[in-house]
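A.,

Following up on our hallway conversation. Structure tokens first:
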């Protein structure tokens, strides 16, 4: 199993550097890469992190808010620690070892969603009843935002935060995590047509909110 030091060091370096030309996460040698990583090959681990860490981090950050970089990095790190455990053949808290079936991305982002739900529960357990942070994953997109953030980006984050949880989920999985609709269908166990319709509806609502045709509303609780 790859050491946490390798995971932490390569991930920190990756997140600190600008992205380069993306590699395809569907490269024919992905199964071999996963086997090598599971056997403890540090180069294979770095390659997996290079392929997926930014996408995982983008999804996590969209949920915890732009002002919580340390939390987003911590959650991202914990996701890859879980992945390392499962690829090495060990049974972790979230079930058994990974079995290659050509659905690695759906499996990976299921771990991300589970980890985010764990963090939601942890935040709510430790928040005081009157503590605004108890709503950390409900309206976090506008909390702690960079004051120099462009107005259009601020309004987009606010609009995304006003979507229903189901609509927001499909938008973020598609546009932050970079998943295909087929992968989202596998992850959420919902019909492809339903997700396509939901995505279309969500984008229309975002467009209306951005152009001022619909007043923004508070996000619905998860």
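Then the amino acids I'd put at each of the 222 positions:
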């Amino acid at each position: 199993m790859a050491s946490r030091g390798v995971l932490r060091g390569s991930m920190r370096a990756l997140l600190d550097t600008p992205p380069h030309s993306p590699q395809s996460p569907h490269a024919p040698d992905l199964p071999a890469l996963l086997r090598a990583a599971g056997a403890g090959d540090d180069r294979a681990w770095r390659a997996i992190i290079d392929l997926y860490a930014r996408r995982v981090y983008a999804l996590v950050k969209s949920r915890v808010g732009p002002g919580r970089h340390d939390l987003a990095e911590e959650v991202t790190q914990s996701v890859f620690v879980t992945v390392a455990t499962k690829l090495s053949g060990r049974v972790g808290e979230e079930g058994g070892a990974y079995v290659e079936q050509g659905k690695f991305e759906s499996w990976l982002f299921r771990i991300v969603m589970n980890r985010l739900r764990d963090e939601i529960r942890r935040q709510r357990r430790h928040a005081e009843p009157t503590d605004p942070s108890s709503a950390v994953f409900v309206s976090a997109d506008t909390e702690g935002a960079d004051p120099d953030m462009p107005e259009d980006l601020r309004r987009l984050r606010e609009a995304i935060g006003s979507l229903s949880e189901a609509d927001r989920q499909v938008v973020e999985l598609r546009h932050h995590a970079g998943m295909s609709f087929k992968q989202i269908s596998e992850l959420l166990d919902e019909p492809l047509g339903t997700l396509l319709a939901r995505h279309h509806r969500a984008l229309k609502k975002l467009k209306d909110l951005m152009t001022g045709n619909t007043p923004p509303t508070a996000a619905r609780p998860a």
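The radius of gyration is 18 Å. Curious whether your intuition agrees with the design.

B.
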